[in-house]
Design goal:
Lyase 2-enoyl-coa Hydratase, Chain  A, domain 2; about 270 residues; 11 helices; alpha/beta; 2 domains; single chain; globular
């Protein structure tokens, strides 16, 4: 059986995770969630890792048939008991939270259909880049359920409560340009340029001090959920982590010597 999660590592510390169930439009079953969860967990302990890109495998050569992920595997869902459905929702929600909180930045390279859990996975990533063939949406209410992997909470935090309510209540499907217009994605490119666009951003991240990037992510993730009176001291504590590092001294030395710094994550 083919691997359902492909992993590719670049020389500059970028991990590309590819959801690989193309015949099922890369939808999530228990097995795929377990593979993704394992990969994200291990990423927390890989000190040479600088950034993660998540994308979907392609089915054929026609971009109109490609998928990032169409969410939960509804064929599997029909076989599950109510208790198993609860377990699935618990699993997918925790897996996407792990993606959101993993030590390094995560880029979603959205390359086709991204419905339900596919959009929710993208929302859990730090940065979202879309190909022009993308069709997205939190479509769960059309199935008489609601987004259960963080969609009702992350979407309004990204695009605002009013627009999130409209999209969730109507189960609206929308294209890449619409996603760009509402601030859901930061860039739209042609399908054959998507991975290069994601890698370009990842390499811009990877050249910076890894401890600084990790602490910036920590401050952004947790500070955005707090009042300013709590968030500013949190930022200060995150800054303090960087002060005794070798990388900070290397950056100062490189500036004085007019050369590029060589960060080691120490």
């Amino acid at each position: 059986m083919a691997d359902i999660l492909l992993q590719e590592r670049t020389d500059d510390g970028i991990l590309i995770l590819t959801l690989n169930r193309p015949d099922a439009m890369n939808c999530f079953n228990f097995d795929l969630l377990a593979e993704l969860s394992d990969a994200i967990r291990e990423a927390n302990f890989d000190m040479n890792l600088r950034c993660i890109i998540i994308t979907g495998s392609k089915r054929g050569d026609d971009p109109k048939k490609w998928s990032f992920s169409t969410g939960a595997d509804l064929k599997e869902r029909r076989t599950l008991t109510e208790d198993q459905v609860r377990r699935f929702i618990f699993t997918i929600r925790n897996t996407f939270t792990a993606v959101e909180t993993v030590r390094v930045p995560v880029i979603a390279a959205i390359n086709g259909f991204a419905f339900g859990g596919g959009t929710e996975l993208a929302l859990a990533c730090d940065i979202r880049v879309a190909s022009s063939n993308v069709l997205m949406g939190l479509t769960e209410t059309s199935l008489a359920i609601i987004p259960g992997a963080g969609g009702t909470q992350r979407l309004p935090r990204v695009i605002g409560v009013a627009k999130a309510k409209e999209l969730i209540y109507t189960a609206k499907r929308f294209n890449a340009q619409y996603a760009l217009d509402i601030g859901l994605v930061s860039k739209v490119v042609e399908p054959d340029q998507l991975l290069d666009a994601a890698l370009e951003i990842a390499r811009e991240i990877a050249k910076n001090g890894p401890i600084g990037v990790a602490q910036a992510k920590f401050a952004l993730n947790y500070g955005s959920e707090a009042s300013l009176g709590v968030a500013l001291p949190l930022e200060s504590k995150a800054y303090e982590v960087t002060i005794p590092t070798e990388d900070r001294l290397e950056a100062l030395a490189a500036f004085a010597e007019k050369r590029k710094p060589e960060f080691k994550g120490k």
